[in-house]
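Record type: monomer structure entry
Structure origin: computed from sequence
Chain ID: A
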Amino acid sequence: MVPEAWRSGLVSTGRVVGVLLLLGALNKASTIIHYEILEEREKGFTVGNVVADLGLDLGSLSARRLRVVSGASRRFFEVNWETGEMFVNDRLDREELCGTLPSCTVTLELVVESPLELFSAEVVIQDINDNNPSFPTREMKLEISEAMAPGTRFPLESAHDPDVGSNSLQTYELSHNEYFALRVQTREDSTKYAELVLERALDREREPSLQLVLTALDGGTPPRSTSLPIRITVLDANDNAPAFNQSLYRARVLEDAPPGTRIAQVHATDLDEGLNGEILYSFGSHNRAGVRELFALDLVTGVLTIKGRLDFEDTKLHEIYIQAKDKGANPEGAHCKVLVEVVDVNDNAPEITVTSVYSPVPEDAPLGTVIALLSVTDLDTGENGLVTCEVPPGLPFSLTSSLKNYFTLKTSAVLDRETAPEYNLSITARDAGSPSLSALSTVRVQVSDINDNPPQSSQSSYDVYVEENNLPGVPILNLSVWDPDAPQNARLSFFLLEHGAETGLVGHYFTINRDSGVLSSLVPLDYEDRREFELTAHVSDGGTPVLTTNISVNVFVTDRNDNAPQVLYPRPGQSSVEMLSRGTAAGHVVSRVVGWDADAGHNAWLSYSLLGAPNQSLFAVELHTGQVSTARPVQDTDSPRQTLTVLITDNGEPSLSTTATLTVSVTEESPEARAEFPSGSAPREQNKNLTFYLLLSLILVSVGFVVTVLGVIIFKVYKWKQSRDLYRAPVSSLYRTPGPSLHADAVRGGLMPPHLYHQVYLTTDSRRSDPLLKKPGAASPLASRQNTLRSCDPVFYRQVLGAESAPPGQRVAAMLCKVRSWVEIGWGATLLFLFCHLGYVCGQIRYPVPEESQEGTFVGNVAQDFLLDTESLSARRLQVAGEVNQRHFRVDLDSGALLIKNPIDREALCGLSASCIVPLEFVTEGPLEMYRAEVEIVDVNDHAPRFPRQQLDLEIGEAAPPGQRFPLEKAQDADVGSNSISSYRLSSNEHFALDVKKRSDGSLVPELLLEKPLDREKQSDYRLVLTAVDGGNPPRSGTAELRVSVLDVNDNAPAFQQSSYRISVLESAPAGMVLIQLNASDPDLGPSGNVTFSFSGHTPDRVRNLFDLHPTTGKLTLQGPLDFESENYYEFDVRARDGGSPAMEQHCSLRVDLLDVNDNAPHITVTSELGTLPESAEPGTVVALISVQDPDSGSNGDVSLRIPDHLPFALKSAFRNQFSLVTAGPLDREAKSSYDIMVTASDAGNPPLSTHRTVFLNISDVNDNPPSFFQRSHEVFVPENNRPGDLLCSLAASDPDSGLNALISYSLLEPRNRDVSASSFISLNPQTGAVHATRSFDYEQTQTLQFEVQARDRGNPPLSSTVTVRLFVLDLNDNAPAVLRPRARPGSLCPQALPPSVGAGHLVTKVTAVDLDSGYNAWVSYQLLEAPDPSLFAVSRYAGEVRTAVPIPADLPPQKLVIVVKDSGSPPLSTSVTLLVSLEEDTHPIVPDLRESSAPREGESRLTLYLAVSLVAICFVSFGSFVALLSKCLRGAACGVTCFPAGTCACLTRSRRREGLPPSNGILRIQLGSDDPIKFVDVGGHSHGCTPLASAPTRSDSFMMVKSPSAPMAGEPVRPSCPPSDLLYGLEQAPPNTDWRFSQAQRPGTSGSQNGDETGTWPNNQFDTEMLQAMILASASEAADGSSTLGGGAGTMGLSARYGPQFTLQHVPDYRQNVYIPGSNATLTNAPGKRDGKAPAGGNGNKKKSGKKEKK
C-alpha cells in the first residue's frame, strides 16, 4: 500500500513539472542561437557565450541550473555557470557525426529551472582535410587475355575520402607502362572514377603478368593521397595441341588380374596454361567392341587399369587407341596406341556335362549297372586341362574313366529304396593345374521300388471295446498299417477273415473298409447276447507278388443299462400274503423283495424303496437287500390289510426301475403261535452236524489241492534242470535222422551264441512260409556255408528247409547264378566300351557344313564312320546328346546320317571367331556308349557392313590448322575372312579427305584429314557420306552420314546499349522487385556469345546484399530492404562477360536513387513502470511514464498516444511526446487481478503507422473477502456400524482473495448446554475440512447429531464464516430377533403339554419375539423349521401362534418343534426356539417281541450256506486244474524230435498233423553250436496262454519267412491267446496299462452309496448264474469277511494277469476294503499277507480264463 503523503507529493511534483515544460515549449520557438566551429577542436574550446546571447542573468545561473541537452549519446558541449560560456566537452569528428552530408549541424537544447525554460541552439561543424583517400582493397587483380583487342576498357576500383568539398577526392594517376593508359571520369554527383584502357596487344609468352600502381589524390592543402597496386595476369589463348611422349605403348598382364590392376600410363603435354593446358584422356572412337568393358582409363592421369575380366582363351592381345584433348574452347587432340598382351593362367575350372542318366534305377539292379555317362571339359591346356573325377565315399556308386575326360557312373553296392529312395550325387571334377580348380555337378538318381516289404502294423493285435446298442455303420477301429514300399506297392487292401470254426461273423456283425482299414459294425451289438468277438484282418499290398499280413482283432462288448430290473419274489402275477400280528414291535422282518437285472456291473446293482403304502410310517424297506420290516409297533388302529408297493431301481445311467406289490395281512396274536417257537431245537441240532461235515470236507479238499500244486511245481523244476543238462551235452548227441519238414512262421528270432537257445512263437499262418537264415553275422555258424552260396549250390537250402522248401531254395540259387552271369556280361561290356573309345581317340571325325543350311541338309554318315550296324540303330536309340546340339542336329535312324534339324547361324554360335567348330556327342543304349565328332560351320557373306550410328557428329574449330586428323568410328561386319570390310569411301568436298589405316589384326580404321582452313562465317557446317564396303561376292556396303560442325572463335566482346544508367525507387519497394534490365550483345556464337552479368570486383558488400543481378537476363532485382534515412542513393558498376576462352568483358555504371516514404513507425519507451499496484490505490495514481519517438520528419513525426476506453486508466501529456499513465477509477483484484494495458502510438503520415506497447500491471490483494461455504447447511447420512476413520463429508469453503488472505483453516464449534459432544463422534481436518468418524455410530443409541464448522482465513484482520451440519444415522439390520415367550435357556427345550385327542386349530402356544432394529428391519415373521411330522402343526407367519393342523391321535409321541423367527432385513437375521410338545397321557401297551429266537437260526443257516458254496468252489478249481495238467501232459507226450539232413533237429507236434490241421501257436526252439549252423530245433504248441522258456538277447541275425505257393487250408485255428507282448519279448513283462483306473462305484463304501463313474474300467467277474447269485446275496450279505475271489497273485488284486507281475498294490491305493461287487458273494478285504506278497486262497482273477472255463 502506497502512503498517502507520498502519493500527494508525487501528484504535486508532476503538475509543476508539466507547467514548466509547457512554458518552455512556448518560448522555444522564438529563441534559436547559431554557432560555427571547426572539427577536431580541443577540449575546453569556447564556442560562444550563451548567457549573453540569450539575455539571462549570470548571477542566478547556478541557482537555475542551466544545462545542455542533445539527442547524442555523448555530451559534446557544456556551459560554464561562472562565465556563461559554452565550451567543447568531447572530441568533435564531423565524419562521425554527419558522414558524407555536405552540411553538418548539431541541434542543442538549453534547459533552465525556476521557472522551467527551454532554449534551442545550433552548432555548425566545419570540415578540415584530416582524412586520406582509401581504396576498398589493398591490391587489385585483373585477368586479361593475350588475345584482347587494343582499346578495351577495364574499370578500376574507386577510392573513398570521408572529407567533403575541396578536401574530397579529385583525381587519379597511373604508373608508367607501355600497354595501358588511364582515363578519369566524373559521375553526376561530381565523384571521380578511373578506367584502364588497353593501348597495345599483350603477349603472354613475353610477359605473363604486369605490376601497375594507381594513386588517388584529394584537393586539400596540403593534398593527401593513397596508392593501390594493380596486378594484371595475362591469360593464355588455346593455340597449342597436346602431344604424347610415345606413339606406341606395350604392356603385359595376367588374365586373372583383379579389376583395378594398373597396366600402363600414357602421358601427353600441352604448352598452353590453365584449361588450355589441362589434358583429358579418353578411348578412341575406333576401338574394338568390348574394350570399354574390359579396361578403364583415368581421365586426368592417363592410367590404364583393368575394369572387367580378361580371358586368355578369348583374346590374347588387346589393341587400345587412346586420345588426349585439352580443356580449351576449341580443344585440340592427339592419339596413341597401347598393346596389352594377356598372359595365360589356370583360371578355368572344369565343366561337367552329364550326357545320359539312367533314372530311376530299380533297387534290385545288379552291381555295375551304368547310371550315367559324364564328359568333362577344361578350356585350359596342358596339365591344366587334365581332369579327374570322383564321387563322395560311402555311396553305392563309383566312377570309372573310359577315355580322357570321359567317365562312367556305375553302381558299386546293392540299392535299397526304403533306406535311400533318392541320391543326389555330387561329382567333383578337379584339374591338374596349380592351383588346382574344381567343379561340382549334381546327378539325381532315383531308385524305383520293387515289392519287397509286406504290410506292417504298429501292433499285431487290437482290443476294441464297443458299447452295446451301438449305431450300425459307425467306425469302431482304424487299423494302423503301412507299407514302406512305393505308392503302388504300398497300396493296401483290407479284408476280414473268419477265425476258427466259428463262421458268420464277417458280413453279419462286422465289415471293414477295403481301402482305409476302418472296421465298422453292421448290426447293433448286445452284451447279453455275445460279449466277445475274435476277428482276423487280412492286409495285402498292391505289389507283384502280393505280400500280406494278418492282424488279430478282439472286439469286446461293454454293457449298457438297457434292461430294467425284474422281480423274482414275490412272483409277478401270483398272490402272496404275508402275515403280521398286531402288537409286533418295530424292526420285525415281514418279508423280502428279491429282484435281478440282466445287465452287468454297476448297472445290475439294485436298490429298493417303498413307493406306496396305506400308512407310510408303519413299514420300511432296506435299501440294498429289499428286506421289508416294521418301522414302528403295529397298533390296533392299523388297517388289517396293507398293500405295499416296492420300487426296484438299478444303478445305471439313466436308471431303470420296476415295482413289486406285497400284501401284508395284520392279524390278532394267537396262543398257538407262542407254542411254536420252543420247538426249534431239533433243526438247530441237525444244522450243527451238517456244518461240521461241510467244514471237514472243505479242509480235506483244500489240502489235496495244495499238495497237487506243490507236486506240479517240483515236477517243473526237475524238467527244467533236465533240459539245461540236455543243452549242455555234446552236439553229436542231438543229431537225429532227418524227417519231414514242417511249416513255421517266425515272428522274432535270431542266431544265438553257443550254449543258448532261442524261442520263436508261431502264428496261425504256419503253412505259408519257411524259415530261411537271412543275415549271417561275423561269428555266425553259417560262415562255413558261404562257399556254397558263392557256388550257387541249392543243396544247402534243401538241407536247411527240408523237402517241401526245396523249390523256393532252388529259385533263389538260380537267381544268384543269374546275377553272376550279369556281372560277367557287365565286365565284357565295359572292356568293349573302353576299346571303342580308344579307337575314337586315334582319329577325330569332322564334318564341314555352310551356315544357314536348310532343314534336312546332309552333314555326314555317323553310323558308317563309327562302324555301327544300321539295323540296330533304332533299337539302340542312337541320338545326339545335349539340348543345345539337339536343336540343330538329328540322326536318321534308318540310314545313320547326321542331318540339319534347324538352320544354323554361325555368328550366333561363334561370333567373330575365325573358326567355328561345334563338338557333337552321340549316345547309344544297350549297352550305353558314347561317340564324338565335330562339325565346322563355314561362313557365308550374309551380313552387310554396318556403322554403330547412322549419323556421325564431328566438331572442328575454325582455327584448326590444315593437315590435322580426326578419327572416325569404324563399321562392323559380322562376317569374317574375305567377307569382312575391305575399304572405305568419302563423298567429294573441297575441305576434307579420307585416310584409311590398317591394324595388325587386319581391320581397317578410317580417319578424316583437314586439307583446307575452315571459316565459320562462310559455312558453319558440312554434310558428308562415309561408305564401308566388304570383300564378299557380290560385295555388300553400308553408309553413315558425317556431320561436321565448325566451332566459332571468341573474337568479339559484349557491348552495353549505354555506358551509364540512373533509376529511382521508393525506399518501401518490396524484395524481388525488378528495378532495371540491362542488355549487352555479343555477335559470337555458342559459349563465346553467351553473356553473363555480374557486379564489378570493387562493388561493396552492402550493395551486393541489397541488390541481385541475374547473370543471364541482366535483371537487377531488389533483395534487401531500403532505408532512405540511412542512405539516399547507391552507385556501382556492372560487368558483362562472354563465355569464350579467353573471356571478353565490358562495364557500365548504374546509380539507384531512393525516394523517402513514411516507413518508420513510432517507437514507445516506458521510462518508469510500477508493475504492481494495490487494489486500494486512489484514482490519479501514476502507473508509468511513457516517451514516444518517430524517426520520420514533418507530419510523419507527429505522434499521438491512446489506450482502450474500458480500462480504469488514463493518459496525461506532460510535454511533447512525453506522457504519464495514471489510474482513473477504483481497482478490484477479485474482479480482475492484472491488466495488460495496450498503449498505441500513431503518427500523422499517409498512411499512418502505429506501434503497440503493452504495460503489464498486477493488482496486489488486500483481505477484503471472508471465506464462504457452498451451502449454509449440510445434511449427512451415515449408516450405523460404520468403521472408525470413515469419511463422512467434506466441507469446502472458498476465499476469492489470494496468498495468506485465501489460506483457510477449519474448526469445530459446539454449542453449549448439549449432552452429546460432537467431538466424541467426529474429527475435523483443519486444513481440508474433511469430517471423519472417530467411532462407530449405533442407531439404537444415537439417531441425529448437529454441529457447526467455522472457516477462517489468515488475512489481517482475519475474516471467517460458519456452516451448520446435521448428521443422520441410518439403521442397519444388525440385531437378530429376540424371543420373549416362551422363555427358555439357550439350547434347552420348552415343554408344552397337549391334551389327548385334540382337534385341528387347537392353540398349543404363542411365540413372541421382538427386534431392536427399526422399520423394515424390525418386521418379524415366524416359520416352522423342523418337526417329526410337519403336517400335524402350523405356525402363524406374523402372529407366532402354534396350532394343530390336524386332529392329534392319542398315541402321538412327543414332538420336537423348531420354530425360526426371522426379520425382514437384508440380509435377514433369525433366531429359533425349540418346543417339546407331548400329550398329557400315553396309554399304549408294550408288545413283547416273540421272534427273538429266530435270529440264531437265521445266522446258522447263513454259515451253512457259506460253507457249502466254498466247498463247491474249491472242488471246481481243483477239478479244472487237474484237467489242465492232464491235457498238457498228453500234449507233451505226443511231441517227437525230428532231425534234418544238415543236423538240425526239431520237436514238432504230430497230433494235429494227423488230424489234418496245421500246428497252431507253435514255439520254435533253436539250439546253436559253434561247429554247425543249427544244433537243435524244437517246435511245441500251447492252446492257451504262453510261457516263455528263456529270454534271448537281441541280435542283428534274424529269420526270413519264404512264402510257399500253397494256399492256406480251410479251418485254420484262430489267433493264439498269447498277448503280442509275450510273443515278442518272452519273459519281459508288458508295461502297465495307463488307461486303467477305478470307477466311483468301486471306491470304498457300501454298495450303492456312491455314484458310478463311467470312465473307469473294472474287471468284470460276472458269471452266467447272476440271477441265482442275486438271490443268494440277499441272504448272505453279512458274511463278507471271506477270502477275496479277485486275487491274481501276491498283492495284485487280480491285475497281474493283465498288467504284469510288477503291477502290485504298491502302485495303487487299497480300494478293496468294504467294496461290494455285483455277481460275487465276497467283499474285497485288506486281508493279512496281501501286501507282503503272500497269495490268498482264491482264483487268479483272470477274466478271460475264468470266462472260458465257465463256458467249458
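Annotation 1: The CA atoms of residues 581 and 668 lie 5 Å apart.
Annotation 2: The longest strand covers residues 225-235.
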